[in-house]
Input
Amino acid sequence: MIRNLIYGTAPLRASVSFHVLRSLHSPPTLLHQPVPDLRQTLASYLRSLQPLISDEELESTQELVEKFLRPGGQGEELERQLQRRAERTENWLTDWRQECIYLENHLPLPVHSSPAVLLPQQEHQDWRGQLRFASKLISGVLDFKAKIESPGGLEELWRGRNLCPDQYHKFFGSCREPGHKRDRVLLHPPNKSPPHHVTVCRNYQFFELDVYNSDGSPLTEDQIHQQMLFLRAHSKKTDKEPVGVLTTDHRNSWGRAYSTLIRDRLNRESVRSIQRSLMTVCLDATALKYSEDLYSSRTAAQMLHGGGSHANSGNRWFDKTLQFVVGEDGTCGLIYDQATADASAVLTMLRHVLDYCSNGPSLLSPRTPITRVPPPRKLYFNFPPETKQHIEQAKQNLDILVNDLDICCFSFPDFGKKFPKRHNMRPGAFLQISLQLAYYRLHDSLCATCEVVSLRAFRRGRSDVVRCSSPEALEFVQAADDPSKSAEEKFSLMLRAVESHQAATDQVLQGQCVDGAILAMKMLCISSGLALPALLMDTSYAVSSHWKLFTGQVSSAVDCVMCYGPLVPDGYSVCFAPSQDSITVSVSAFDCCQETDAQRLSDSLQGALRDMRSLILECRPGED
Output
């Protein structure tokens, strides 16, 4: 049962439940993201604090908010500045979020930043099937690329609104580059000829594989397959250093190693080839065998970080925006860099690619004549002593991270999103309240919780977070196991908690972002050389933004499991993927923290889901 969950429907809430794709005959009409109303934003902020801090702390924070909002005060001036920024930019939030949340984050990309998507297990069990499937997958991606670049492009509709296609044009040929203070995203210059190759990694070796003919037409699957066969024959195991493992390190450490690495001309040319490539395809060796109970969780972890320095982690270049993984044992998936790509857009691409792999052209017969194309070009590296030392340090740091990650994936079979819908509750809100109850039962308190939602309904919109802690959620979880409370009382409190979360989510989806507005205030103060508002230096703000529960929901037709690591050392990450009749969940935590345990939270969550269902059926019999 658990092994099968990776074949079932499964970081981040894509918010595209009713997703329609069709060709565009004219550019979509997109709204500009509105500037949040500051008073409404800070009222929501104070509500989110109530379950997390004492009454005295809340009263002190309320005084700071009132002072900030006084007529003629700092709040009024910052709101005017933000309005001016919104008038002269396509999106006032997106660039700031990319810079502060991602490019200035110095933690390693695997586990800490880049989500992994585990796709359905393929039928192949050897290298022959691996190469065939990889060839078909590349063809599917090229087909998607052709579609978004066609005059019609793609139109995506969500709740009757167009979604912004801006991200798709940055997927291909882009790469993150490490820096000492902050990273930057390398995008293909629009005035130069586009890249025509993908990077393929096998046995820690990198190859430049052309996927277009000289006339600009994409190679056929059979041509790509022939290239893959050549590549495999020229990538036997060697004792070469796993240079890709450098990209798994702390960003400052990788930045120093990068400066050393590209001083050598050969290394620089090889790195530039990887950075300019359309994407990376990693041909992985078979991972370790696991028991049925551990299979899904261990396979998800392998997809997330590669398994460590002695497994497939060196077979990666984590800075690439898109990095497909195809294993000899039939495992396959994707790791993507959130500095450039969000879950909503990634899942749309994956749905197209998987449909292509299922229904697209099959491989031609080997006897079919093919146009001769240049064979894949191997990328070589020199390894001076300083670079070897950097690689050894990166391997040690990676193995510590891999061994510290505790991940649990499971399929909850009792019900899916049909059940809460039947009782007029949004599945996402229902699941979030069940998670609040599960956490409360383990830790006897609520914690700062955020749910990532997509803002692609706005021009150049990316994402922001919903603050999930609320007074209504606290009331319900405190009453849920109280024997003095009647079932009707508990049911009423549960409904109020679910409705409160639905309202908070709608507020963010309409552009009234609490955390986006707070980030904007910070950035405006920094750019103007002003002191930060006292309310942002307050202990309450630090507590409320220490996200111990980092959550998301994947509402998509894509058959997958998504996973990512916690945002803080003493926290969890949880990703829901509800289908009609079941729920796939991935939970992760760090072993170094004695307070957290992914398996215990998973067990508590399943208990909370069953108890909430029983409560509904007890109070509303005959409605199931």
Remarks:
- The CA atoms of residues 448 and 544 lie 5 Å apart.
- The chain has 19 helices and 19 strands.
